[in-house]
Amino acid sequence: FPITRDIFKDIRFNMADAEGDGVPAGGAPMDINEALQEVLKTALIHDGLCRGIKEAAKALDKRQAHLCVLSNSVDEPMYAKLIEALCAEHRINLLKVDDSKKLGEWAGLCKLDRDGKARKVSACGVVVVKDYGKETPALDVVREYFKSR
Q: Do residues 98 and 73 make contact, with C-beta atoms less than 8 angstroms apart?
């Protein structure tokens, strides 16, 4: 079988995605969802994400988490209560998003086709950031969001 360059090429992240300048091409400042997506992508590159209830609960309980992102579309109410209680107890910033599929895509729980489009996206109820990876303008936007709340 022929071996192509595509096997060795990681199409998940190109440098333009990972090193965003905090301002989209239109020149307007990024909103919290765009900033969160970039922060999660950077943390994923640096192996700083915990995805799912078990990993998230462990990281929150050990106080290793910097940020927690919870989906509003989880089926089990005790799931959300546990995460909210752990975040409140350990004073960890909690951000809620609407869609589990979108959170799963942001956390890297998907397959990507040749064009970089997400396929076979798995839903994810909670994501915890243990390591931001590096300081980015998107991280500053997220921090400012929590300071203003």
A: yes
Mean pLDDT, rounded, for 86-110: 87
Apex 24 CA angle, 18 and 29, nearest 5: 115
Task: Read off the pTM.
Answer: 0.74
Q: Among all chains, which residue has been given the structure tokens 């360059």? A: 5
Structure tokens at 89: 């107890």
DSSP state of 25: T
pLDDT in tens, 50-96: 888 898 999 988 888 888 999 988 888 898 899 899 989 999 989 88
AA letter at 78: M
Angle 48-145-86 (CA atoms, 0-180°, nearest 5)?
A: 55
Instruction: Output the six-digit token pair for 98.
Output: 């609407």
Question: Which residues, listed in sequence order, are joined to residue 68 by a DSSP beta bridge?
Answer: 94, 128
| Gap between the Cα atoms of 48 and 33, Å rounded | 19
